Amino acid sequence: MTTPNSSVTDLSTLVGSWTLDPGTTSVEFHTKAMWVLNVKGTVKAVGGSGTVDAEGAFSGSLVLDAASIDTGKKKRDEHLRTADFLEVVKYPTVTFTATGGHPVADGKVEVIGSLTVHGRTQPLTVPARVSVTNGTATVIAEVDVDRSEWGITWSKLGAGLKNHVVVSARFSRG
User: Fold this and answer.
1) Could you give the CA distance from residue 45 to residue 62 in angstroms, rounded to a whole number?
2) What pTM, to 2 d.p., does this model score?
3) Which terminus of the chain has a lower count of CB atoms within 10 Å, N or C?
4) CATH code at 62?
5) Tens digit of pLDDT for each residue in 56-78?
6) Are 20 and 49 in contact (CB under 8 A)?
């Protein structure tokens, strides 16, 4: 049994089905506009789940509402929802699908999966930390992505293609 707030690398201790709690899950991104302006924003999680088997093998998903993108600037947010970026009318969700992974150094787990954005699916490996508190599992992950890999290449002055994404996803036994 894991102690509260402990980092978990032996996922076999988490056997079962898990359901995402969108209300306590956060997804933030950070990028630069025109190479100098820091832009921060959020996207809301709308669903997700996971399963862990007795050997610690896992799979799961995290689904985001693309239209919920919020950088605090209405005009910019409206532009991010267009075909130049997320094209939310045609592609209303962003989905990460985990297909497996394994423990790595420093109490982290490497999550292997794919990210679907703007109708394109690309492989993505994400280092994460898993902790357990009072029957909930929290997965905290940070990853840098180049949005051009998903065909999102619009950029004023050729800047801001790289994005740093921070996810804190909370799951409860489902």
Assistant:
1) 7
2) 0.90
3) N
4) 2.40.128.110
5) 899 999 999 999 999 999 999 99
6) yes
